[in-house]
Amino acid sequence: MKIIALGSGTSQGIPVIGCHCPSCISEDKDDIRLRSSIYVSTGNTSILIDIGPDFRAQFLANKINKVDSVLITHEHNDHIIGLDDIRAINFTQNVTIPIHAEPRVATDLESRFKYAFLNPRPTVPRITMHRIDNSPFVLGDITVTPIRVMHDKLPILGYRLNDMAYITDASYINEQELAKLTGLKVLIINALRKTTHPGHFNLEEALEHVSLINAEKNYLTHISHSMGPSRTWSHQLPSNVAPLSDGMVIDL
After folding, report:
1. Using one digit for the tens of pLDDT, what is the confidence trace for 59-100?
2. What is the three-state SS of the chain?
3. How many distinct structural domains can be found in the chain?
4. What CATH number did the domain enclosing 202 receive?
5. Which range marks the domain in which residue 34 is found?
């Protein structure tokens, strides 16, 4: 399995428009972060998790041209608003792309992109909506296990795909859901900043969950500019933890 980090930033990305903080003026490529998303491929099956506003640029930068399925974590714009650009995949693959989301999120997508669902035609995205719950399901040779997490008061989903898991925008995970994450080889988990935030793990909380889950390798994502340039804090992380950076490739 190959994991490509398409984006590792927050809803504003880094640099933030109009900001001149050390992160936003950094010339280190690791401090340039598009909105959070990953692409997972086994060679037989390719899955995109979230499809935010940078989707087109992310696929072009990483020379990706194939998607079999899209998993959506939740309905906030930085995770779904690039959906219209799936049209390019429709054209080049000549396929309809299945979107997997829990019912509340699916209904929201159908409302925001109703032109794609109510009046299908060649010039709009060709997608099918699959409503999912917390039950595992199979896509090709990948077993997908939804992980219920809380984003402040909003219930959202993380996903386990075989031996890796992707959790973003989480501020709480209960013991039952944590148990679904045992035996991981790779964990990608959100760490917004060093100070607390109601809707996201901060760095300390993310590292606490890294310790609880005990994956072999761990990566931090959904990183904001307030964390500071990565060179100023990444060296202080445990040896099995690293910040995710855009374009990073992780092989399992």
Report:
1. 999 999 999 999 999 999 999 999 999 999 999 999 999 999
2. CEEEEEECECCCCECCCCCCCCCCCCCCHHHCECECEEEEECCCCEEEECCCCCHHHHHHHCCCCCCCEEECCCCCHHHHCCHHHHHHHHHHHCCCEEEEECHHHHHHHHHHCHHHHHCCCCCCCCEEEEECCCCCEEECCEEEEEEEEEECCEEEEEEEECCEEEECCCCECCHHHHHHHCCCCEEEEECCCCCCCCCCCCHHHHHHHHHHHCCCEEEEECECHHHCCHHHCHHHCCCCEEECCCCCEEEC
3. 1
4. 3.60.15.10
5. 2-251
